Each structure stands twice: as structure tokens, then as C-alpha cells.
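Shape matters. Shown next:

___
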Amino acid sequence: MNFRGVDILNGYQFTNQELNHIMNTAAQYETRVKSGEVIHDLEGMVVASLFFEPSTRTRLSFEAAINRIGAKCISMADASASSAAKGETMLDTIKTVDGYVDVIVMRHPVKGSAKEAADAAVHPVINGGDGAGQHPTQALLDIYTMRKEKGHIGGQTITFLGDLKYGRTVHSLGYFMQQFGNKMIFASPEELKMPENITADLRSKGADITETTDVKAALSESDFVYVTRVQRERFPSIEAYERCKGSYIVNNELLKYAKKDITILHPLPRVDEIATEVDDYKGAAYFRQAHNGMYLRMALLGLVTGRA
């Protein structure tokens, strides 16, 4: 299966066969890293890590992946310290950096920017998040985590909880869940519902979707709950944010109503939507999920360069 030169831009560009190949490749890298192997698969290659928007896990796990797989990394972690602060366009930055590297990893606050970058670059572009659009590598590590936690994906129920309007992770993950035949429950405040165009598109593809505000009922039938942060930076006004923050909080009391052995996922960072008391719950997988990101991103780097 050839991924060489392929841009990783959205959550619905892969077949199930391709998704399973990505997951299997990530598992192989995880085994190699945990065995203590020093990996040289991308030796001689350079990867650009361009973050026009703040990030902790995505940027650091990508840069760890770059180093673990044997490539060199050049990075821009602060757009204010780059020529963007002088007025250089994102596309001019991409066209310049493209001449230095073999792969570009990019996060940008503007929806659709990853596709524009990919169109401008000769080398493969991996979307690390484009505004309120897509975050495919997060969704890929999510399904990798789900597979590890339950042993398989398919025929399960997942509740997406919290900010579904601005939460780009759930936008990508929804398409993967549809592909694997998982039922989805969208639980959110009215102001933060999953965008209608995404819900309609998923349903047109045959997805089984329920929309609700009853969190207890949703969790009682769910194998997974995917919790999202109410993102202040995405809101048009502080007043709108204040109305929605803290709408749903997962704590030990709420988990009394949840299905036995429910797995709790969260793309992080969290604010107050998951109480720290939940961290000791066996099914609290969000830190394991964050760690899985490095192996998944190693797989993508290996695959798009043709070295895996």
C-alpha cells in the first residue's frame, strides 16, 4: 500500500484498509521504540514543524516522532517570531520552506489552510489542525487508542461530549466512526451542536447518529465517551463563551450512570470538563491517548516518505 507523497489533510480521505495499515504501522513503531531500538528510517531527511497557532501535544509529539524516526527537524513554534509578523503570507512561507525539507507538518488558525499549503508545496503536507476545520492526525491517534483499549473498532457506541461546533477533533473522528460502523451520540449545549453540514453528510453516508442533551442516558449506552474542551479562543465573544463553559463535567458522580468499562477519551488540554478525580478510573485513557500520538505520527512520517 503506497502512501509516498500523500498529503494528510482530513478525516475522510482513507479507506478502512488504509486506516488499518496506518494503525498496524503505528503498532510496529510502538514496539520498536519500547524495545529500545534506535530507529534510522528517515535518516538524511528533514521535516518542517510549522505552528502558526499554539500547541503542546501535537507539536511536541510530532517533533518527538521526527527525532525518534531518525529525521532532522526544523521548527517554527511562534509565528510572531517569524516573517509572518512582517506580513509574509502563509503560502509564501510554505513555498520557501518546501525547498528546505522532505515533509511539512503545519498547524494554522484558518480553516482550509492545510489544503492551500498542500497545493502550494511539492513535498507532502501533514495537517496538524486548521482552525475549526480538520485535525486528522488527532483523529487517527484516537482510533489507534480505541483499538488498543478495546482490542478492535466496530459495532460500538461513542458519545461526543461538549464543544462539537468548534471542536475540529470530533469533526475528523466522526467520519472515522462512520467508516467503522460505530453509532454516534452527539451531546452538547444547543450553541455548541455539531455543525449541520457535518451531521447531514455523515447521515448521508449511513451513519447512525443521535443528538441529545441527556448526558447520563448517553453514557449509559456508550463504550466510549470523547470529551472536548469548550474552546474560548474559537468563540465570537467572551459572553458566548461564558454561557457555555462548564456545560458538562465528567466526574465520579456522573460515571455512576455510565456503561461498565466505558473508555474516556479527550484530545487535551482539559480545563474543567474532566475532574482530576477521574484520572484514577481504569478507563481514563486520555494520557495514554496523548502518548499514542507519537507512534501514530511516526507511522505517518514513515509512510508519506516511503520509508515505512
